[in-house]
Every structure is written in structure tokens, then in C-alpha cells.
Design a protein that fits this description.
heterodimer; A: about 325 residues; mainly alpha; disordered N terminus; B: mainly alpha; MetI-like fold; 12 helices; about 70% helix; flat
């Protein structure tokens, strides 16, 4: 197994020295600048968000900046668009994560063999992740999704599909397709790392026992990959929960009954920058933080599990 | 895949396995080409005239031209590139400056509770930054950092620092203990130890970390859009200006996108062996 952390070179327990407060501080010194920086840059804005969320500030309404406790939260929860945004976020995030994982796993299995041009294929497959997401969204919206001149129209026209306004009538699918295209390489790389760390002996043993390739994959490789698949899906969820640029460019949150692609980030953006409702946006922000923390906690458990496993392997 | 060849294996089985392998390779190549096609299409379209970009069916053969590339640079792409290059380089330099000593204090001479600190860094990566846009915008407004590259430098350093600390730490853990001990016996202090012993060994890892930070910095749109939109747009914000364009502009959009994506695609290709490590925060190799 090839985890990065290894016990052999793992962090050594600090040796307690008598009266070594100075030594302890010397030890901490290299860490402090980074730690203080992160506390200031990431925690301070959230404290301010929390503060705004308890007030009722709309920049368009003079004198509205008062302390109202949880009134803004009540407003957010009673807003049908918010409830729609929660559902849309779950829908868009879950479908993108699951689809990109399925495709990514397939590709990882296909690439994890020796064949002509493997390096080139791998390089081609990771490229979508590297393309600037804003450029991806713009190019998909124009050269691919265009109802008349788009590539998709050309590819599908032999099947009688013609002049479909993809972004307008299939807005969720259009957004999800772009996100899947962007995130499949990420999933592929994570699963590939798993496949490459699998012990060859187990696979050989299965083969000697007469298991077919498919059987070996289903009964030995897949269970082994579970950790990696979970890690990829959770990390992917954390990033995809925050999808904004793609939606901003492709659909402006629209589609369906008008808000089919409004996810939580886009909802907060609209509250803050179109309705100028600072406090309601802040309250929605706090809710999103709490929701994300729940996903993040699970991820952390998993990651520490991975690290513990890595260290135990030694 | 391990192929065990026993003497009993007949010629027919052998040919069948080979043709299965060839078929799988073919399928792999086909999928790779389909996945890569939007990028290829961007490059092709960027060399077209606008008239060749708008055709049904799409044109694969045409007389290539560099017109649109000239247009992109004469049409105001210069300043956004300068902003993006400045923001990326300065923030990545800051990340390394803060991150390398921090990674050191969490691995080689680990402080007590290094695990807690490490996970604190990780949780900051998981905060939905959209929730902080309002206060950040207001703070930037009041401190004169709106439309200022430094606002982005500060934020992007915060985004990438956790990733860098985790990733560099995973490289530092691989340095053989004996080498560090030798340096310590020679009486090297922390500064000398880091610059003379650790960095030369960990350089490839540090470079990969820097490249991955550049990828995220260069492509970031959300904060760039809100904090620099009017005067000092970065490349992603410049790209979005195409959204408002009227008329035929696909060839120019593709040329602009190709130029905008090139640095990061190259960085990613160079760092591709380390990419998975960065994406999993050093957990996977």
C-alpha cells in the first residue's frame, strides 16, 4: 500500500523536557504564522456573517440595520425559493457526484492496464479538470449546447433530435453534464490511486482459484476500493456543493419553473447582490455552513480512518 | 493486469485474450477522445474565422488563421493576464512561505496536538466560502481593497494554505530520518535545517504543491468576480465578459479560452503524477 504517511518516517512524539516551555514555544514558532493567518482569514468573516445574520440589514432600506435575533432565519426558512434551492443543491450535487464517480471508476479501471498510448490517454482524461471552469461553461453554452450550430445538435441529429434549447429546457441536465465533465478526472485519479495500491497477490490468488475478471473485480477489487470511492465522493461533494460559476454562466439559476438550477450558493448570491438583503443572505450562509459541516465531519472521520490505516500499515 | 500463462493455454485462448485486450484499448481510446473533444474543439474553433465557427454541420476542415488570437490580445486581454499572474505568483509564494515551516512543525519536529491543528486546517477548506462573501465584500469595501489584487492575494493564500500544509507535510514525512539527524548532530538550527537539508530533498514535492496551488488560484472565479469586477479583472472575470457579447464571437471566445487555459493545463500536465496527492490533501499517492 502506498499511502503518503508512513510510520517509519512518521511524526515523532515530542520528548517532554523538564521546564521546557521555551523549547515548546520554539517548536511552535514555525507553525504560528500559518495558524494565525488561517484563523484571521477564514474564521473572522464567519463571525461577521453570524453577526449580520442576527440583524435585519437591507442596504436599500435605510435604518434597517437593527438587531432582530433569529427573524432573518425565520424569513429564510419560510422562503419557498430557499426550500427549492436546498432540493436543487442536493439534486445537482448528488447527481454530479454519483455520475462522475461511475464514469471515473470505469475510466480508472480502463486506464489501469498496460496499453499503447496509456500516458497520452491519461493526460487527455485529466485535462477537463484543468480547464478553467468559467471557460468550460462558456464553451459548453455556445459551441456545444447551441440549438443550431452546437456540436450536440450535430451529433444527435441522425437520431432525429434537432434544435433543442438544451440550456433552457434541460437546464439541470445541462449543468450536471458540465459538472460531470469537469469532475470525472478527479474521481478517476482517486480511484486509480486505489487500484494501483491494490496488492497483486490477492488478484493473482483469485485468478488461480479460477475467478473470472468480472468476479475478481466485483468481489475483491470493489470492496477494496470502497474507501477510495467514499473519499472521492465526499471531497467531490464538498467542492460541488459550492458550484457557482457554471450555474452563473449557463442558466443564471433558471430553468424549469424558473429556479430549477438555483442552488444554495446562487441563492445567496441573489439575496446579497440582487436584493441587497445582507442579513438574509448572511442567515442563509450560516445555514449552509452548518449543513456543510455535517458533510465535512463525515469526510474528516473517513480521512482520519485512512491516515490511521496508513500509519498502522507502517 | 496480471496474465498468467500456463503451458496448457491453447493458441485460441491466447488470441481471444489478445483481441479482448485490443478491443478494451480501442474503447478506452474512444472514451478518452470523446472526453477530450471539447478541449480539442476549443483549439480548432480558435483558429477559425467567425464565419467558419458558425456552420451546420460543424466544419472540421478550414483555412486556419491567427486573427482571433491577435484580436484577443488587442482587445484587452493584457491587463487581466497581468492581474492573474501577479495574484497567482504572489499568493503561491506566500503559501509556500507560511506553509513550509507549518508543515515542518506538523511533521518533522511535531508539536503536541499536531493532529488537531492539521484537522483545523482541513475544516477551513470545507467552509462554504459563499457564506462569507457578504462580510468579505464589506470588509474589502471599507479597507480600500475592492478592485485591488491584494484582496485576492490574501483570500487565495487562505484557500491554498491548508492544501499546501497537508501536501508538503506528506512529502516531508518521506525524508529519511537519518538525514535529519545528521544535520542536527552537525548543530544546524531550524532555518538551516529547512533550507539546506529539507528543501533540497523535498523540492519536487514543493514544486508540485506550488503548481496545484496555481491551478486553483488561476481558475478561481467567485471571489474574483465580486471583488475585482470593475477595474482589475482577473482572467476568469475577463472570460465572463464574453457572456454579454452580441453577435458572432465563438472563434474569439475559443481563442481567449485557449490562452486563458493554457498555463494551467500545462501546469497540470507537468504535475500530473502529483495531482492525486494534492487533490486528496496528501492522503493518496
Amino acid at each position: 500500500m502506498s499511502f503518503a504517511a508512513r510510520r517509519r518516517a512518521g511524526p515523532r512524539r515530542p520528548v517532554p523536557e523538564a521546564g521546557s516551555r521555551r523549547a515548546a514555544w520554539l517548536r511552535r514558532m514555525p507553525l504560528l504564522p500559518a495558524l494565525i493567518y488561517m484563523i484571521v482569514v477564514t474564521q473572522a468573516p464567519f463571525v461577521v456573517t453570524l453577526w449580520y445574520s442576527l440583524r435585519s440589514w437591507n442596504t436599500l432600506t435605510p435604518g434597517s440595520n437593527k438587531f432582530v435575533w433569529f427573524d432573518e432565519y425565520k424569513l429564510v426558512f419560510s422562503d419557498p425559493t430557499f426550500r427549492a434551492a436546498v432540493l436543487n443543491t442536493v439534486k445537482i450535487t448528488a447527481s454530479s457526484v454519483i455520475l462522475s464517480m461511475l464514469l471515473g471508476t470505469t475510466l480508472a479501471v480502463l486506464v489501469n492496464r498496460k496499453f499503447v498510448g496509456r500516458g497520452i490517454v491519461r493526460t487527455m482524461l485529466i485535462t477537463p479538470f484543468l480547464v478553467m471552469p468559467v471557460a468550460t461553461a462558456l464553451l459548453f453554452k455556445t459551441t456545444i449546447y447551441d440549438p443550431i450550430f452546437g456540436l450536440l445538435d450535430w451529433v444527435l441529429s441522425p437520431f432525429g433530435v434537432h434544435q433543442v434549447n438544451w440550456v433552457g429546457t434541460h437546464s439541470v441536465a445541462a449543468v450536471v453534464a458540465v459538472l460531470v465533465w469537469e469532475w470525472t478526472p478527479f474521481m478517476m485519479l482517486i480511484v486509480l490511486a486505489g487500484l494501483q495500491s491494490e496488492s497483486l497477490e490477492a488478484l493473482e490468488a483469485a485468478r488461480v482459484d479460477g475467478a473470472s475478471t468480472v468476479q475478481t473485480f466485483v468481489w475483491i477489487t470493489l470492496p477494496y476500493l470502497r474507501r477510495y470511492i467514499e473519499l472521492g465522493m465526499l471531497l467531490g461533494s464538498i467542492y460541488l456543493l459550492q458550484a457557482f460559476g457554471e450555474i452563473f454562466i449557463l442558466t443564471q439559476g433558471g430553468g424549469g419553473d424558473g429556479t430549477a438550477t438555483t442552488n444554495l450558493p446562487y441563492y445567496i448570491y441573489e439575496l446579497a447582490f440582487n436584493s441587497f438583503n445582507v442579513s438574509e443572505a448572511a442567515a442563509a450562509g450560516v445555514i449552509v455552513v452548518i449543513a456543510t459541516e455535517i458533510v465535512a465531519t463525515i469526510t474528516l472521520r473517513l480521512l482520519s480512518g485512512l491516515f490511521a490505516a496508513a500509519e498502522a500499515m507502517g | 493486469m496480471v496474465v498468467l500463462r500456463t503451458p496448457r493455454m491453447g493458441r485460441r485462448r491466447f488470441t481471444r485474450e489478445r483481441s479482448t485486450a485490443a478491443f478494451t484499448t480501442l474503447v478506452t481510446w474512444l472514451i478518452a477522445i470523446v472526453m477530450f473533444f471539447p478541449v480539442l474543439w476549443m483549439v480548432l474553433t480558435s483558429f477559425k474565422r467567425e464565419g467558419d465557427a458558425y456552420t451546420d454541420p460543424p466544419k472540421f476542415i478550414f483555412r486556419p488563421t491567427l486573427t482571433e488570437y491577435h484580436q484577443v490580445f488587442s482587445g484587452g486581454a493584457g491587463p487581466p493576464f497581468e492581474h492573474s499572474i501577479f495574484v497567482s505568483l504572489v499568493s503561491v509564494a506566500l503559501v509556500l512561505l507560511l506553509g513550509i515551516p507549518a508543515a515542518y512543525a506538523l511533521s518533522i519536529r511535531a508539536i503536541e496536538r499536531w493532529r488537531d491543528v492539521l484537522f483545523f486546517f482541513l475544516t477551513t477548506k470545507m467552509l462554504p466560502y459563499v457564506a462569507a462573501i457578504v462580510p468579505i465584500y464589506i470588509i474589502a469595501l471599507h479597507t480600500g481593497l475592492l478592485d485591488n489584487d491584494w484582496a485576492l492575494v490574501i483570500l487565495y493564500t487562505g484557500f491554498n494554505l491548508p492544501l499546501a500544509v497537508w501536501m508538503i507535510r506528506s512529502f516531508l514525512l518521506e525524508i529519511p530520518k537519518e538525514m535529519l539527524e545528521a544535520a542536527r548532530i552537525d548543530g544546524a538550527n531550524i532555518f538551516v535545517e529547512i533550507t539546506r537539508v529539507i528543501l533540497p530533498i523535498a523540492m519536487p514535492g514543493v514544486a508540485a504543491t506550488a503548481l496545484i496551488c496555481v491551478i486553483f488560484t488561476w481558475n478561481e472565479f467567485f471571489f474574483a468576480y465580486f471583488l475585482t469586477a470593475t477595474k482589475g479583472p482577473t482572467v476568469p472575470v475577463f472570460m465572463v465578459s464574453f457572456l454579454q457579447s452580441e453577435g458572432e464571437y465563438w472563434a474569439r471566445l475559443s481563442a481567449a479560452a485557449a490562452v486563458a487555459c493554457l498555463p494551467v493545463i500545462l501546469a497540470g500536465w507537468i504535475a500530473q503524477k502529483q495531482l492525486v496527492r494534492g487533490l486528496s490533501l496528501g492522503a493518496l499517492k
